[in-house]
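Structure ticket #2291
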Amino acid sequence: MKKLILLLSLLTLLTSCSQKEEQTIVQKIAEANGIQNFEDVEELRYTFNVRVNDTLRTSRAWTWNPKTDMVTLTTPDSTVTYNHKTEAAENEKTDQRFINDQYWLLFPFHLVWDEMEWEYSEEATAPISGEQMQRITVKYPDGAGYTPGDMYEVYFGDDYMIKEWVYLSGGSRENPFATTWEDYEVHEGIAIAKMHKNADGSFELYFTDVSVKQE
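Resolution: structure written out below.
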């Protein structure tokens, strides 16, 4: 009985250490991208663009004040301003776009902002480059946000900067969507990957007119 209790205690300790290691890795990714500087951000501007086969399919300009939660979306057709915290339900379509576009912009921060589950692999083969990198697999629980159950396989280097990821809609591996994370640019201590491409370059999601205003 004493041996069994000792074994269970050891397993509990190992599990706890593993979770702490994963949390440290997630925090390091966020810190490598400058999350420690985000609390000083007063205004963030960026334009979200999607190009498919050399045709610009989407272009949306955003202004976001994280401290007040005020968001403005500007498209060629209209301008919408609302409070993301208190008026999301009345502006659901716009808010869904805001969450999607801002997620691509600041995903490393969502690793510590959001409720999610993750697993860490010390070595894995990146889907586009074929290089050996570290990987975390992220899963959102059922009922979380607009797209519950979504999963991401995130590949990063020893500098904890993301190089590639794979999006698994609803957690399904039937249609994995892999893109790069590249063309990093630092704004007031916050690193932004301005370009994301698929393997053959037929899809490009990229950011322009990025600016960060701090207090």
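Closing remark: The two ends are 61 Å apart (CA to CA).
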